[in-house]
UniProtKB/TrEMBL annotation:
It is found in: Membrane. This is Non-specific serine/threonine protein kinase. The keyword Transmembrane helix applies. Keywords: Glycoprotein, Leucine-rich repeat, Membrane, Repeat, Signal, Transmembrane, Transmembrane helix. GO terms for cellular component: membrane. InterPro entries: Leu-rich_rpt (IPR001611), LRR_dom_sf (IPR032675), RLP23-like (IPR046956). It comes from Lactuca saligna. Belongs to the RLP family.
Amino acid sequence: MGENFLNGSIPKGLFILPHLSQKLLLDGNKFTDNIPDEIGKLQQLSKIDFSHNSLSDKIAPKIIQCKLLTYVDLSRNQLFDEIPKEITGMHILNYLNVSHNHLIRSIPTSATSIQSLTFVDFSYNNLSSLVPGTDQFSYFNYTSFLANVDLCGPYLGEGGVG
């Protein structure tokens, strides 16, 4: 259902479809409002791509109930507030892109415990504080954190990445 210019809220009925199993690709539409809590019912999902929409509100903490997720792309929306600490419960996640939103505060330090992460992009948000520099995060370079003026860390260079 990607790139079809669908608009309005993401239909909650979508989350009870019996044949929706591994991928939910809603990228490139014009969805607004929030990511419904019903997303937690899709426990067999391995890939979620909601990028390039106009989703607003917080990142739904219920997303972590999808224990088989390996790929999450929420980039280029209007999401705000903090990155939920619950995200660290996604133990097999290897791709996380939340760039180009309005996320604030710090990157949860517990996110470094997601050993399967091979790609992250937190760039172009309003994040602040110290970027975790241990465990998996020691493999990511400054491009994963660009345009967050108040972020700093050992591998981001002088003055952060703003």
